[in-house]
Write a structure and sequence with these properties.
Length: about 350
């Protein structure tokens, strides 16, 4: 840290991304990427002309992509915001909607960026503990009189609230924005998008990173009342109006035109998730119910960090968190059937004390 860094940022606890080690080839089950490639139509969308046109700035309004998202989700283009990954949008939401002085409520175990953004923008957090079973008690979010940020399904755990409970939260906080982070919604949870017409304080945030196999493209979008979207555009145009590149926009449109391909992949991942949960429970693991493309699992005979380290030594990456409430568990991305079979076989060896 230099002597010149603004004192406001000197104590920031930064977000720690999932490992991307380059020392060997790993089976990567740590960052919730899709095991399936982008669709053939997406691959074909990046042609010679698009590469040659990189000399030109991208369209800051992203008109083709915004129009396609509006069509897919049954909204008007004025109700769609697109940015450089959903993290970008969540950052803008903390800037735009947390109030003055800023306040925001979110769970204690959730996506780590919420706390980072609160600290970054000097927003006072209301951190609400999950229940003992790591589920969200929706009643604790009723009538809070501050911005609410909920990942549904919840990051790190995968549990999801039903639409009726989400609606109660949104309806009971009419004077504040409720941000619903639906990064994992396509793996079996209920989306809040149908509530947008009814509640002007609802902002739904989604991403192309998970179900649409485009984590490396960095593309996210938000859906909501046109006035909320205009607010986000005000922040975007005050920071970086060209924040989605030409290639990513083309790939995004192509992905939306090939939705059947991604729907089929989601079904495959959900089926593999069910197989993985069953196999791990037979090994004695506690696996929490998940409607995401990952599971949170722990074993009574071996602590979470030890399992993480032994798996890594054997070439399999999972995500371990030092947060006290979940330090005895690991978050495991649902990969291909072959990857999950390898994981289960390796866990069986580890728990059986076999050496590799």
């Amino acid at each position: 840290m230099s002597q010149y860094l603004n004192a406001r940022y000197q104590t920031l606890e930064v977000y720690t991304p999932g490992e991307q080690p380059q020392d060997q080839v790993y089976t990567k089950l740590n960052t919730n990427e899709s095991p399936y490639p982008a669709s053939p139509r997406v691959v074909a969308s990046i042609g010679k002309k698009e590469l040659e046109d990189l000399r030109l700035y991208s369209d800051p309004d992203l008109k083709p992509l915004v129009a396609k998202l509006a069509e897919v989700y049954g909204l008007s283009p004025a109700q769609v915001f697109v940015s450089n990954g959903s993290d970008d949008i969540l950052n803008f939401a903390f800037m735009a909607f947390s109030g003055q002085p800023g306040r925001a409520a979110f769970p204690d175990i959730t996506y780590g960026f919420y706390q980072v953004f609160a600290d970054l923008h000097q927003v006072t957090p209301t951190v609400i503990p999950l229940r003992e079973d790591f589920s969200v008690d929706y009643r604790q979010y009723l009538n809070l009189d501050q911005m609410i940020v909920l990942a549904n399904p919840n990051a790190q755990v995968g549990r999801a609230l039903p639409l009726r409970e989400m609606e109660e939260i949104i309806a009971s906080n009419p004077d504040h924005v409720v941000v619903v982070d639906e990064a994992y919604v396509d793996f079996g949870a209920e989306s809040c998008v149908p509530l947008i017409a009814k509640y002007p304080n609802l902002l739904v945030v989604q991403t192309f990173s998970k179900s649409r196999s485009m984590a490396g493209a960095r593309l996210g979008f938000a859906l909501g009342n046109a006035e909320l979207i205009a607010d986000l555009n005000r922040i975007k145009y005050s920071t970086n109006p060209y924040n989605v590149n030409r290639l990513t926009m083309a790939a995004g449109v192509a992905a939306l035109e090939d939705q059947a391909y991604y729907d089929e992949n989601c079904k495959k991942i959900m089926s593999t998730r069910a197989w993985t949960v069953d196999a791990m429970e037979k090994l004695g693991f506690t696996v929490f119910p998940s409607l995401a493309n990952f599971v949170l699992a722990g074993h009574p005979a071996m602590d979470g960090e030890a399992i993480y380290r032994e798996l890594k030594r054997r070439g399999i990456l999972v995500r371990h968190f030092s947060t006290p409430r979940i330090q005895n568990y690991n978050r495991i991305t649902i990969g291909s059937p072959a990857q999950m079979a390898l994981l289960v076989d390796t866990l069986r060896e580890i728990l059986g004390g076999e050496t590799s």
